[in-house]
Design a protein that fits this description.
By secondary structure, this protein is α/β, with parallel strands linked by helices. It has twelve helices and eleven strands. It starts with a helix and ends in a 5-residue tail after the last helix.
Length: about 260
């Protein structure tokens, strides 16, 4: 199997567009990343995490999302690959980056993300075989501290625990959307003071989907793909948090077990 067999059409945005438009495109297409183009050529990638990073920086407080350009949040860490690259090699590369861009003669043909890989495999095992340990926050934690934890650890979601019980999840999408609204609605004179008062509970997703340590990985894969979720908390049988399982966890599991379908 080659990457040309599993690639999908990428969602693109020009680097001169506004960050607000990038967020709207992500919401419309249910994706956390867009390819950035410059005069039709590949210019990099913009991710939900990078938007959350840029919108939360102190030096940009007072600037609404509508005034910031895509170029301000563009990353150049994109790996172009040939359409005939084997999927096994692509999986190894996806351990280092979030997307592979399939190109030929400088033309963008498609992209391959963890989603495209997971749509073309079958998994054995259960959640505890692939999950990772989870950093957590409290609903009473300040949002700026939770955001900093996510940016420093390069993770996209934090389970929210209250008294040891899972009560929600905070994602990079929640943060990006909240910071966009905050910048657009709050006077720039008040932003620095008021942003410090935002709590995780003000922004988090309350209706959190989860699985158990013994949930089959095929069921996890189905939920992630059909419900377009980047990751899921994993609970023990008594309801306590055991870990997190993400798309990247499943990619790492594929590499460890060489479970790629023929």
């Amino acid at each position: 199997m080659q990457v040309k067999d599993i690639m999908t059409p990428p969602i693109t945005i020009d680097k001169s567009e506004r960050l607000g438009h990038a967020l709207d495109l992500m919401e419309k297409h249910g994706t956390r990343r867009l390819l950035v183009t410059n005069n039709g050529k590949l210019g990099g990638i913009i991710t939900m995490r990078q938007i959350a990073r840029v919108l939360g920086t102190r030096r940009r407080l007072g600037m609404p999302a509508s005034s910031l350009h895509v170029a301000a949040a563009t990353l150049d860490a994109v790996i172009p690959v040939h359409p005939e690259m084997g999927v096994e090699e692509a999986i190894l590369l996806l351990q280092k980056t979030s997307v592979l861009v399939v190109t030929q003669n400088d033309e963008i043909l498609g992209w391959v993300r963890p989603r495209e890989i997971l749509a073309n495999v079958k998994l054995t095992g259960v959640s505890k075989d692939a999950m990772r340990s989870a950093l957590t926050v409290s609903p009473r934690d300040r949002l700026i501290h939770a955001r900093r934890m996510m940016m420093d650890r390069d993770i996209g979601r934090l389970p929210v625990l209250d008294g040891g019980k899972l009560v929600g999840i905070l994602t990079e999408r929640d943060i990006a959307r909240a910071l966009r609204a905050f910048r657009d609605l709050v006077s720039w004179r008040q932003q620095e003071t008021r942003i410090k008062n935002l709590l995780v509970s003000d922004v988090m997703t309350h209706d959190v989907k989860y699985v158990y340590v013994d949930t089959p990985l095929e069921e996890v894969r189905r939920i992630i793909l059909e419900e377009n979720r980047g990751g899921l908390p994993v609970l023990n049988s008594d309801g306590t948090l055991a870990g997190m399982i993400t798309r990247r966890c499943l990619i790492d599991y594929l590499v460890r077990t060489k479970a790629l379908a023929a």
